[in-house]
Each structure stands twice: as C-alpha cells, then as structure tokens.
Amino acid sequence: MPKSQRAIKPIPTFKSEDVERDFWASADATDYVDWASARPVRFPLLRPSTTAISVRLPDTLLTKLKILGNERDVPCQSLLKMSLADRVATERR
C-alpha cells in the first residue's frame, strides 16, 4: 500500500531526549508524520549555535581588521566571521 494511503502512527511519548534520539535514528518519519499536510514554518529567533575558539593573529592583522570593521561600521569579530564564511563558501564551490 502506498505511504499516502497508510494510517499515520501516533508519535510515542519519550522518557528522555536520548530515548527519542535513538527512536528517530531507526524509525521512518513518514510512518508518523503526514508530510502532505505539512506547512512551512519559520523560526525567526532561532540562532545557530556557536563555539568560542582562540586564534592568535599578528598585531598588524588585528589592527587592519579593526580599521576595516570601523570603516564598515561592523564589529571586528563580526567582520572576521563574515570573511571566514565567504572564504569557506568560495573554497567549497
């Protein structure tokens, strides 16, 4: 029987996130969700997680970053993140 005509199973209640994670790792979501009736959803306040790292930069490079950020009215750290993201995107093409 095609999945569109099968009965949708109820999603079980889980005792913990670990149990739920294990369940969804092996379960077929199409058995539990009617994707034909799904609607697009936006999460405007959701932000990607970040990890703090330590990077040693030459003083001259840091000074140049600060000057460039000041010229663009962008904080130095944000400018650095944007530059890294652009470079990674370019390299992955």
Secondary-structure topology with pairs:
Blueprint: H1 17-26, H2 59-72, H3 76-92
Can you give the helix content as a percent range?
A: 40-55%
The oligomeric status of these chains comes to single chain
What is the tally of beta strands?
A: 0
Query: How many H/I helical runs?
Result: 3
One letter per element, helices H and strands E, the order comes to HHH
Distance between the termini: 42 Å
Overall 3D shape: elongated
The number of distinct structural domains comes to 2
Structure description:
By secondary structure, this protein is mostly helical. The protein folds into two domains: 3-37, no CATH class; 59-92. The protein is 44% helix and 0% strand. It contains three helices and no strands. The protein has helices at 17-26, 59-72, 76-92. Helix 2 (59-72) crosses helix 3 (76-92). The radius of gyration is 23 Å and the shape is elongated. 0% of the residues are buried. The model has no long low-confidence stretch (mean pLDDT 91).
